[in-house]
Amino acid sequence: MDTDNRKSNDEGLCFIINPYFWATYKILIYLMSTTQHLQDFVTQVRRDILRQVHQVNSGHPGGSLGCTEYFSVLYQDVMEYSKDFDMDGKNEDLFFLSNGHISPVFYSVLSRSGFFPVEELNTFRKIDSRLQGHPTTHEGLPGIRIASGSLGQGMSVAIGAALTKKLNKDSHLIYSLHGDGELQEGQNWEAILYAGSKGVDNLIATIDYNKKQIDGATDDVLPLGNLKKKFEAFDWKVIELKAGNDIAAIKGALEEAKGLTGKKQPVVILMETEMGNGVDFMMGTHAWHGKAPNDEQLEKALSQNPETLGDY
Amino acid sequence: MKIYKNTGNIDTRSGFGAGLAELGKSNPDVVALCADLTGSLKMDEFKDNHPERFFQIGIAEANMICIAAGMTIGGKIPFTGTFANFSTGRVYDQIRQSVAYSGKNVKICASHAGLTLGEDGATHQILEDLGMMKMLPGMTVINTCDYNQTKAATLAIAEHEGPVYLRFGRPKVANFTPEDQKFEIGKAFQLTEGNDVTIIATGHLVWEALEAAKILDEKGISAEVINIHTIKPLDETAILKSVRKTKCVVTAEEHNFLGGLGESVARTLTLNYPAPQEFVATNDTFGESGEPLMLLDKYGLNAKAIIEKAEAVILRKE
Fold first, then answer.
1. Which among A120, A273, B30, B42 has the fewest CB atoms less than 10 Å away?
2. What's the gap in Å between the CA of B48 and the closest CA on chain A?
3. Closest partner CB to A159 (pick from B53, B70, B76)
4. Domains, chain B, ranges and CATH?
5. Contacts of A162 in chain B (CB under 8 A)
6. Buried b / exposed e across A295-311, counting CB within 10 Å, b at 16+?
7. Domain extents for chain A?
8. Which residues of chain B neighbour A164 with C-beta distances below 8 Å?
9. Which tens digits make up the pLDDT trace of B163-212?
10. pTM beyond 0.90, yes or no
11. What is the topology classification, in CATH, of domain A6-303?
12. Residue B61 is among the residues annotated as catalytic for this protein
């Protein structure tokens, strides 16, 4: 018994003075602080989304809330980019939003990532604003590299940017986001065929797989079938992300995707999200796809997402 | 009257191919995209000499236009090539959102425009493309008249920052503009001097306008022919200078009168110097299969039609 106890104490001491322990400890603390930061960031972005659409009584909160974690992880933790916005975006990762109607989350994350003043979120969808209903380069908003809104074009645009990266010998990556309902637009399949057949392997496309669209469930409107098999049949690498609103899971999927680039195949993440995530009465329905909350609903939604980084 | 010599019939699309090949050597940022019509667009030389900068997209024009828009991000200058019909009507929304509204430096190069595509018929003979393209804010619209001008325009648009629609055609036509003539976007050429009527022509109808001017000259009518390769921005200075002298105008184009060059000229005149105008253009109709010259005759798009309209418009002068 004595011998066993002494051995145990020695091991405990060794553990505390072991440099590996401290390295692991520091990483854990860093991860916890990063996770806490991201959690706070996500909560604040949700508030921004709700307040933007409420203020003008229009816009698309459902899909925006569903993709809040994805945008936050992408811009806060995954992409390498310069905050001094330059349209050409050489030597940095680029992101393209194809389903432009979820502009509230894009604008919030861009502003809170330093692209333009957070106060400008006040101008969303108002006259003379750079924050148009759907994102555009036309008013010169930093962070936007192409107009989107008319669906189905972003995959092709992302491929084009990826091809230029290759021509420029620029090893940075192209990220893109697409709605699942958006895949009903035929141009996507032209693009998916091209990227798979020609091995555009510096592209990580993500599908916001919330299985809902304006008129209802995608299964009722026009079923998408087995998306994994479809992408694989077009020679894409497919990552299935079941917990598309979980920060750690998203980070894991994006890191896995990065590891799959450069291998002669494009990569897609089928990210299963909850439309309206973070606001209980907006979840589990397609009703909030393109509808703004009223005063009472806003109060309730905000109470579920207390202010973290400061409202604009 | 100044007489222009045809140095040999050759297709305008070959002028595009030659210009693109030259750009391949002179401008490393130029990339070319094609939707399965490389031979028809005469893009082979560029493709063979610069395979790494040539992108065969397949029969997927929407994808091609948006890939081109994406390629500008990072500094490339994409030239897309397919028939005029598939360059415009088929992909209007893609051009509108991803190219024009986004202000991307894409050069949409369109062959086989108009009736002179010939035997393939109305499905391929677009007569509405100039209208669609000129209505897009920020879009430059060019319709060249011969091989030399098409080659010069191809070189010039690479230097221009912003979206461009360059329209040319399939048949072998007279090559008559000087080989070394500098092409300036939006700057028309006055080809002949005249006092009785101004003929403003674009594309294949510029040569027909010169032929018409010769016959009119023999009839004692002096016609001032203007080669207006750029539909937008329109050279209003050249138009007004001539019409102030001749007091009447005939416009000539291989396009529907709705939305074409003629309407742009009419607007310029209405706002600045109202004058009688006649239109040589298709009359709100689709085309049909047939030999190009026979089609031009049937639809009133040749020297004969220009002469008739010129004589008619002169009678309308006060």
1. A120
2. 17
3. B70
4. 10-173 (3.40.50.970), 189-315 (3.40.50.920)
5. 70
6. eebbeebbeebeebeee
7. 6-303
8. 70-76
9. 999 999 999 999 999 999 999 999 999 999 999 999 999 999 999 999 99
10. yes
11. Rossmann fold (3.40.50)
12. yes
